[in-house]
Design brief:
16 helices, 407 residues, globular, mainly alpha, 0% strand, Growth Hormone, Chain: A
Length: 407
């Protein structure tokens, strides 16, 4: 495995490593997997909380929104700090925070503890994703870009499936699933202790904490295209994570907790399949496939809701998931190709900001409308129409910049 580390770029000597490059790469990728699995695992469990604590479906959207806003806040403040203090310190702190979040979620006896756990989970995820993403790319540029796209999507699928399986077959699922994730995180924390950081510290750490939503000049063309794909794709993910369970119950009259998790797992799993199937294609091809599949998939889902076709609903989820995965991979490759090594975490933090803005803002708006008494079907149709328009904007951007090589 070819290793591309910032220390080599900057001329410094790489510190002695206790772990091989392959083990380090797998460790970093697994951290993204576990963080994102933890974010999606509550989706099939929400109906259990809802039954036990007697809150409305709107509260589920609020809990989801709290998580998304926490991720956004952490990305704004801590997204670039690993470019200055190193990847390892950031990941040690955020992994420890995730363990505490799993404890809070696993022992929650009411909405307060559940929301506190989601806030802590969101803050640690937002602070970690750009650091771990930059570390993966430094270890291996090409595989790192692929891992940055596959790991979040796979993590979401694994978390949704894990939650669904445990809800159906394991005693005390609201405790067990978070205990399993906490155990995995503890093992990863030990791995990080053994890791040696190849990212040299440099001045400017405190200044990097000032919220900033900008990228270097040479990255802007790529980011303009990528942002539309990011926002559209992650808005679909937010659609299924926040409104999915309630919508499935309302439209198809299916109340099983596992169905909501299965829908999210289908969406995420088809995204992974698209990334692997197209891995030898260019970044622009990924972006084209992603944008078009998002539009087709969302239109299919909207039709399925109108005609109450459960099979067609899942068919649309699969197509939209392919668009999500392909678009995310294309966008990541575009912006990474244009960024300098010392700018990786900062550029990735802006990328993930776009993703979580797409995931959080429409879901919050939809939840607010439902809370005011809007019909959930009408809200879902408006949500879907917005997503189709966002994907169309990405297509317009790709056509407009056709002559510009961005990946």
């Amino acid at each position: 495995m070819t290793e591309i580390s910032l220390s080599r770029v900057s001329g410094g000597a790489e510190p002695h490593q206790r772990l091989s490059p392959r083990v380090r790469f797998c460790l970093l990728a697994s951290i993204t997997l576990s963080f994102l699995a933890g974010s999606s695992v509550p989706t099939p469990i929400y109906p259990i909380y809802q039954s036990a604590w007697h809150f409305s479906a709107v509260v589920i959207t609020i809990i989801f929104s709290v998580y998304a806003l926490s991720v956004l806040a952490a990305l704004l403040v801590f997204g670039r700090v690993s470019d200055y203090i190193g990847r390892r310190p950031v990941l040690l702190v955020t992994t420890a925070m995730q363990v505490v979040a799993m404890y809070s979620l696993g022992t929650a006896s009411g909405l307060g503890e559940l929301i506190a756990g989601r806030v802590l989970q969101g803050l640690s995820t937002g602070a970690a994703v750009s650091a771990v993403g930059a570390g993966l790319i430094q270890l291996h540029a090409q595989r790192g870009a692929i891992a940055n796209a596959i790991a979040p999507v796979s993590g979401s699928a694994i978390g949704a499936l894990l939650g669904s399986v445990m809800v159906q077959f394991v005693p005390f699922p609201t405790h067990t699933v978070f205990a399993v994730l906490a155990g995995i995180l503890i093992v990863q924390f030990i791995g990080l202790v053994l890791l040696r950081d190849t990212q040299p510290a440099r001045p400017g750490a405190l200044r990097s904490l000032v919220p900033q939503f900008s990228v270097p000049t040479q990255v802007r063309s790529a980011m303009l295209i990528a942002a539309s794909v990011f926002i559209a794709g992650w808005a679909v993910a937010g659609f299924y994570a926040s409104l999915g369970p309630a919508l499935i119950k309302h439209v198809f009259e299916v109340s099983s907790s596992s169905i909501g998790g299965l829908a999210l797992a289908t969406f995420s799993g088809s995204g992974v399949a698209a990334i692997l199937a197209l891995r030898s294609r260019s970044a622009r091809t990924f972006a084209w496939v992603g944008s078009l599949a998002l539009m087709i998939g969302m239109v299919t889902v909207l039709i399925s809701l109108q005609f109450k076709s459960f099979a067609f609903f899942f068919y649309g989820i699969g197509i939209a998931g392919m668009g999500f995965g392909a678009g995310f991979q294309g966008g990541i490759r575009m912006v990474v190709a244009a960024a300098a090594p010392v700018e990786l975490a900062g550029v990735l933090s802006v990328s993930f900001l776009c993703c979580y803005l797409g995931m959080g803002v429409p879901a919050i708006a939809a939840g607010y409308e439902v809370a005011k008494g809007a019909d959930i079907m009408v809200t879902a149709q408006l949500f879907g129409a917005v997503i189709v328009m966002l994907a169309a904007l990405a297509v317009v951007g790709l056509i407009w910049t056709r002559a510009v090589k961005v990946g």
